[in-house]
Design brief:
Length: 94
């Protein structure tokens, strides 16, 4: 993690809107995946993108302060729950 992480991911939000406008993308909510034309192709493309990974010089690879905080809270919760389980066997942390 870097000390110079941006405060927000606002840049990503704005970039999405720029691209949506440029390529005339329409977003429509659907109640599920069954029977939606193009869903299988969208899933395949999403999987391919996830496997491809990010470029090292890609700005989206930089952590945000919000993301760092989310990760820190998740790690603290896991650590606390693990400690609680070991310390007080048979009791619940929640």
């Amino acid at each position: 993690m870097r000390a110079n992480a941006p405060n927000t991911s606002q840049w990503a939000f704005l970039e999405c809107h720029t691209l949506i406008d440029r390529y005339k993308v329409g977003i429509i909510w659907s109640p599920g995946h069954m029977g939606i034309e193009g869903n299988e192709m969208a899933d395949e493309l999403a999987d391919a993108g996830a496997k491809e990974g990010r470029m090292d010089n890609d700005r989206s690879a930089e952590p945000t302060i919000s993301g760092i905080g989310t990760t820190a809270r998740a790690l603290a919760n896991v650590t606390t729950s693990d400690w609680w389980r070991r310390r007080y066997t048979g009791l619940s942390a929640s």
